[in-house]
Design brief:
Elements (H helix, E strand, L loop, with lengths): L1 H11 L10 E6 L2 E6 L4 H9 L4 E5 L11 E5 L2 H11 L6 E5 L5 H10 L4 E6 L2 H13 L5 E4 L14 E4 L8 H6 L4 E6 L8 E9 L2 E10 L22 E2 L6 H6 L3 H8 L5 E6 L6 E7 L2 E7 L6 E4 L1 H16 L8 E6 L2 E6 L6 E4 L2
Parallel strand pairs: 5-6, 5-8, 6-7, 8-9
Antiparallel strand pairs: 1-2, 1-3, 3-4, 9-10, 10-11, 11-17, 12-16, 13-14, 14-15, 15-16, 17-18, 18-19
């Protein structure tokens, strides 16, 4: 594993071992494997040295249940490098980090801004903030770690040249635009319909307005206040009705899977979905938005049927048809323009076809 460690150091210039807790979980083909440095030091070190994701917290620290929700991790080092590069950090910059986590990325940010720059990192979890503060201190890295809601930013250190976000975001806070009025805000951004699939978004800000094009796909743990809640029991609905929709079975599926869910979701704010069934049997697309529900049953050899809110079905079909009629454009052809109180999606160019959205 020496080669992998050398690769990580070459990419990032700093070993992440001092920032990891004694217990981490590494993802494998058969699920997450728990590694304890005190019990399996060699396996733990191999994981620390590898270019892999390591989960460091489950369910906001309430459990160690790998069937639960991972809520903190040491990100893939190669992805960390990619996102740092997208932030375009220069020596002497003032940087606000949203989500301290283990403290490793905060140290890398400080490495890039140098002695003449400063890094403020905001962490919502008090326990994680305290641990990261201690690790940074022990590593001799001068970062100001504060405990607070990162979606409010940190006004005491503003203005910032850069904002670097380490959690998935669906609604961009106005506070970040105010605190970084002329710079770059880099974040993983996703639609509700795309679930855990986000896109790197580097917003170039000028006079408090940010504009950026969607980049590569990434997967990040969502900001706590922007998580999608559990669906719970499906409510009793109307009778199922067979219909003729302007969508083939393959088109219904493509519009919520892979990058289709991201793009179609750009026109369906606050809409979430689940897809069940498979093989030669009937599939069902379940939709939910603002407390209303709908479903579409479909499949090769099956009549299409619908149930639930007609407006939600109409909006989904319209958004999917828009995407399909334009040749299924990929996310890289879209971007976001964000100002005080307004978010606008644009297609192909910031001054091209666009529409306002409320996330």
């Amino acid at each position: 594993m020496t080669g992998e460690l050398d690769l990580v150091r070459e990419m990032l210039g700093r070993d992440r071992t001092p920032f990891l807790p004694d217990v981490v979980w590494r993802s494998t083909a058969v699920g997450y494997v728990r590694l304890d440095r005190q019990v399996e030091p060699a396996a733990w070190q191999d994981a620390a040295d590898a270019d892999c994701v390591l989960v460091t917290q489950w369910d906001d620290g309430e459990t160690e249940d790998t069937e639960g929700l991972p809520t903190c991790s040491a990100s893939l080092p190669s992805l960390v490098e990619q996102m740092l590069d997208a932030t375009d950090i220069r020596e002497g910059h003032s940087v606000l980090e949203i989500g301290t986590g283990t403290g490793y990325t905060a140290a890398l940010l400080k490495d890039r801004v140098g002695d003449g720059g400063c890094v403020v990192s905001v962490e919502v979890d008090a326990g994680l903030a305290e641990l990261a503060r201690g690790r940074l201190r022990d590593a001799g890295v001068d970062v100001d770690v504060v405990r607070g809601d990162g979606l409010l930013g940190w006004g005491a250190g503003a203005p910032y040249d850069r904002v670097h976000v380490t959690c998935g975001i669906r609604r961009i806070p106005a506070a970040w635009l105010r605190q970084c009025p002329d710079g770059v805000i880099m974040l993983p951004w996703g639609t509700s319909l795309s679930g855990e699939r986000d896109r790197i978004l580097a917003l170039r800000t000028k006079n408090g307005v940010g504009v950026g094009r969607f980049g590569d796909e990434v997967g990040f743990m969502k900001a706590r206040s922007q998580r999608i809640g559990e669906w719970g029991d499906w409510p009793d609905g109307d009778d199922t009705v067979e219909v003729e929709l302007p969508l083939r079975a393959e088109e219904i599926e493509a519009s919520v899977e892979a990058y289709g869910g991201f793009v179609v979701g750009l026109q369906l704010p606050r809409t979430t979905c689940r897809l069940t069934g498979g093989g030669e049997g009937e599939r069902v697309l379940w939709l939910r938005r603002d407390g209303v529900h709908a479903s579409i049953g479909f499949g090769e050899g099956h009549r299409t049927s619908v149930e639930g809110d007609a407006g939600l079905i109409r909006d989904y079909v319209g958004a999917a048809r828009w995407w399909l009629d334009r040749g299924r454009p990929e996310p890289g052809r879209f971007g976001l323009a964000v100002g005080e109180g307004e978010q606008r999606v644009w297609f192909d160019a910031p001054d091209g076809e666009s529409w306002k959205v409320s996330w």
